[in-house]
Automatic annotation (TrEMBL):
Biological source species: Danio rerio (Zebrafish)
Annotated keywords: Cell membrane, Disulfide bond, G-protein coupled receptor, Glycoprotein, Membrane, Receptor, Transducer, Transmembrane, Transmembrane helix
Residue intervals passing through the bilayer: 18-40, 52-71, 129-148, 178-203, 234-254, 274-295
UniProt record similarity statement: Belongs to the G-protein coupled receptor 1 family.
A GO cellular component entry from the record: plasma membrane
SUPFAM superfamilies (UniProt xref): Family A G protein-coupled receptor-like
Gene behind this protein: taar14j
Boundaries of every G-protein coupled receptors family 1 profile domain copy: 34-288
GO molecular function: trace-amine receptor activity
Bilayer disposition of the protein: Multi-pass membrane protein
UniProt-recorded name of the protein: Trace amine associated receptor 14j
Amino acid sequence: MCEDYSCPERSVSLSVYVILYVAAAAVALLTVCGNLLVIISVSHFKQLHTPANILILSLAASDLLVGVFVMPLLFTLLIESCWIAGPVMCAVLKFVNFQATSVSVHTVSLIAVDRFLALSFPFFYSEKISLTVICIAALSNWLFSLFYNFTVLYINRHFTGFMCPGVCFFVIDEVSSLIDLLIVFVMPCTLIIILYTHVFVIAKKHATAIRALQVHNSTESSKNKISDKSERKAAMLLGILVFVFLLCLLPYYITSLVISYTTVDLLHVRDVAVIFFFVNSTINPIIYALFYPWFQKCLKLIFTLKVFERDSSLMNVQCY
């Protein structure tokens, strides 16, 4: 049964209240626009249709979901300290939140696997890891997350239970919570850390070997050098993406675990951790803009409207 619940009166001034909403709207808008630009860039320019970029496209799609659905609803809840959007939108927030989180974590895991294979087994990677394989992997990730999250929420009656007015929160039983922790946090994050440790070790060995060798100025050796340098650079840049992702992810799960096993009131700390977790969706396109020359070139072509020119999808946007 629902206890008597009334939304608390605002204890902040109107100016602070307006600033909070403007800041929340700015973050959500930046998230949507940034990830839309990533999606347009990778989708439009055929030269960017590579396995690694398909995974970036998948990550941008999940980040776009966060910007469109999760951020507006979540920030409103945090600012108001009360749920005002009704039970239907609460169910939407629950499901999209779970879906975007699991897709993001598993996509970053796939990025780690992709970079590990590209550097550790380059011949196997070039022969076996095609666009079709990566597209199937990315689609399977979305479908698995869809089935998994629907099952978790349905088992815990989040699609059938009655919603108290003014309240929107997730209650998951201990078994489901443990399974969710393993599938969405422990296993993928362990895989990411292990694989990227190997990736950085391999990249360092490759860099040392290239500096030590006396390479003849032949066309073939030059091509191999460029290809190897490109793979190492891609690994290092994606490493930045992975590091920032883990940095935003860990506080949320750590505070959630601490809250589960302590009586200390840490709800405000968790709210801050939740904000950091979802702001990662805003940070990702900024990382692309700062460190990825191809994204910088795509932005220039998009903002100058050259993407509407004939055969613009065939333009050279790669920088080695």
